[in-house]
TrEMBL record, chain B:
SUPFAM superfamilies: Cytochrome c oxidase subunit III-like (SSF81452)
KW Transmembrane helix (keyword) present: yes
Gene Ontology BP, a term: aerobic electron transport chain
Organism expressing this protein natively: Paenibacillus zeisoli
Name of this chain's protein: Cytochrome (Ubi)quinol oxidase subunit III
Keywords, in A-Z order: Cell membrane, Membrane, Transmembrane, Transmembrane helix
From TrEMBL, chain C:
Main location per the UniProt record: membrane
Family as reported in the entry's similarity comment: Belongs to the cytochrome c oxidase bacterial subunit 4 family.
Protein name: Cytochrome C oxidase subunit IV
One Gene Ontology term from the biological process aspect of the record: aerobic electron transport chain
TM region positions: 25-45, 51-71, 83-105
Topology class, membrane: Multi-pass membrane protein
Keywords: Cell membrane, Membrane, Transmembrane, Transmembrane helix
Keyword Protein transport: no
InterPro entries membership: Cyt_c_oxidase_su4_prok, Cytochrome_c_oxidase_bac_sub4
A molecular function (GO) term: cytochrome bo3 ubiquinol oxidase activity
Record's GO cellular component terms: cytochrome o ubiquinol oxidase complex; plasma membrane
A Pfam family matched in the record: COX4_pro
Amino acid sequence: MAHAHSVKRHTGLMDWLTTVDHKKIGILYLIAGALFFGIGGIEALMIRWQLIKPMNDFVSAQTFNELITMHGTTMIFLGVMPLIFALMNAVVPLQIGARDVAFPFLNSLGFWTFLFGGILLNISWMMGGAPDAGWTAYTPLSTTAYSGTHGVDFYTVGLQIAGLGTLIGGINFLATVITMRAPGMTFMRMPMFTWTAFITSAIILFAFPAITVGLVLLSFDRILGANFFEVSNGGNPVLWQHIFWIFGHPEVYILILPAFGVISDVIPTFARKRLFGYSSMVFATILIAFLGFMVWAHHMFTTGMGPVANALFSISTMLIAVPTGIKIFNWLFTLWGGQIRFTSANLYASGFIPTFVMGGVTGVMLASAPADYQFHDTYFVVAHFHYVIVGGLVLGLFSGLHYWWPKMFGRVLDEKLGKIGFWFFIIGFHLTFFVQHFLGLMGMQRRIFTYLPGQGFDTLNLVSTVGALMMGVGVLVFLLNVVVTTRRPADAPNDPWEDGRTLEWSIPSPPPEYNFKQTPLVRGLDAYWKEKMAGHTEMTPAEPVGPIHMPSASILPFVMSVGIFVAGLGFMYHQYLVVGLGLIVTFVCMAIRSLYDDHGWHIDPEETTEKGVKA
Amino acid sequence: MSAPHAEQVTSALPHEPEKATLEGRNKVLAFWLFLGGESVLFGTLFATFLALREQIADGPSADELFKLPTVAAATFILLVSSLTSVFAIQAMHKGNRKSLSLWLIVTVILGLGFLGLEIYEFAEYVNHEKFGMTTSAFSSAFYTLVGFHGAHVLFGVVWISLLIGQLAKKGLTVVTAPKIYVSAMYWHFIDVVWVFIFTVVYLLGKVG
Amino acid sequence: MSEHNTNQGSAVRHRHRTEGPQKHVIAFIFSIVLTLIAFAAVAAGGVNASFTIILLVVMAVLQVLVQLGYWMHLKDKGHMIPILFMAFGFFVAGTAVITALYWVWW
């Protein structure tokens, strides 16, 4: 059969720059996320090294400020968010039985925009100093009066661009889940990871525009001399805190919900039981997302909003413990009486539960406004949010990476190295952050570059730094695992864990370009498990074998992102000609995309049967 | 799952061509999602404006600055353009390409008229009222909110113009129809934002 | 949507043709009236300020409902998800506005 349109298929580097395949974009997100995660990790180790002993002079106070700012910003926006998107890209379309995402082109655009935003933020190190006002960039610390270098400009412009990419990615996944589900895959039959990816995307959609505005206001203040936060001309610094946290609090649920999803998929697989309380899990996820938009001011108890606002936000914050508690109990009940296998993925998942509970408990403590006056800006807060973000999200990510690695790369990660890495990481984690609770209660402030001896801080800080080094070893072991595994043959079967319950395990590892030769028919929750129990080895197809329509690869997303990058850089240095040039490149690419229809191309049935056997 | 090619369906265009293909339906749905996000974007800008609207420092106040006739004219222009954009979509649903192009052109002209009024207004403020971006917190909030809306109008004008060109070249197909439908949604949303701007910025500014 | 291609659908299509423009012109006139009321209330002056503010907000909300419902077809069936997402967008926007009014200055 002749192709309707001849397509040019790229190879090598061009293939990666132009790809619109969600599986490849997932790998790109993984590589970029790992890179930034590494940079953020090195920054963390430098922070801990500075604090290993009192009156240390490993880095200067200014460098320390830059390190804590970049550690937080890099880890949250450029490290773990893309790792979440990596898993979402690799898994969500497969879990809903889709051949592709709703907008392959936008998916690629989202990735490249994120990457160039991240690069812009990080080149600040080489261009006169990184941002130094904390990841929250509170005004007036972040205004030109107190932060005279271009550092915070890199923060506002870099995050703006990266945030644009994230927003595009979020809309793509919302549309994908709404419209691309296979026949029979109703909302209440979707795997939990897809559910959490869906809800996370919705939070991205509603939270990111707020930070977009916040960053615009801050950059206008800094670059155009506006007065939003300039008190002498009527501005108000508290406004920044509100806008930042209206975004910032939902952001932490953007981070944690996908981890909940990973855990909810990993635990049933390795307990050989269906997830306990599936509907209550879905309900709890939605409720957490909803409440997440009504608690932001608990970050601001000490600004002086008054007892009414503080009481309201205290109560709404404590309410979140209810749906989260539902989830914890559901995981425990899933494990209860199961035939549990402690693979690396399940070790991380099991480590997640108690660790995250500890972070949740300190969260409720912090939610109490009067108590928060004591905890505020101490290491107690640092310990709390690292327990939920590292002990929650990062453990979840490692669990997910071990679990889906064979689906992404066709190779099962080495179990022995996986377990060694897990023990280093989790012991190191608790050593690092458990003691910080007590440092905080003893009065050690966060964001202080050194401390005097004789306050009882010395030993606990030493322990904390040793723990951080152990976490570093854990991450290195994981990297070693990746290298070792990559040198092995790609021989993972469709269902390497043998107890896979969801659709992604019904197709080859890694899946062919078109994912499903025939769109599967879904007959219930845990679609693949259901077929297995009925004695089938594969899914029942919902359509006959036929030609498969594929979207064309395109270099435009990459060029558009370069254009935005150039424009952003020009804006920071008042080079408005450069801004115009960059924007023209971007808009011309948009026009080209609109003017020239993408007819895509087709894969013939003969090709799929042949590939389907050996891929 | 695979969409029919544009050439194959031009002969018999369905009543709602924007929803005839999966791609078209995806586009319309995703644009709604995008507008949900845009609501938050403008909501935050409005919040900023409301927080700072009385912080005039040494500059002029809203009451001294705003002239209702200009605002009323701009409002009327944008309202009419919303109606012409509805007519355009109705023409599209009837498969009448000529009338569709005509209404789109009228919409663009009205959009340009609105932009002209806004630029004139801003120029007046800057040149004659000493009211610039850096004057006060109120002025910064005003220019950012109204300017963001103006930038949206500008983008809409360029976008719809581009679509008029495509319509002439490619005709009304299941590929071009969703683009036109989505641009009309965008145009209505701009009008929705303007309803809040003339209420919150101008009229409330006069009331105090 | 597919029903419009059948014979039965031609009746529906016909009704669209005759009903459409009228409905939208009425919505337009309604919008204009709402706008005029708002402008007139301000131009007239002398009216109680807090009453005027409430009136203005009510006029704006009504007009937005007309735009979203009639011109952007949100009131038509099959718009469950758009309504959900728009409503939540407005909800978050509303929290930001309430914050600006009550919790920024004290």
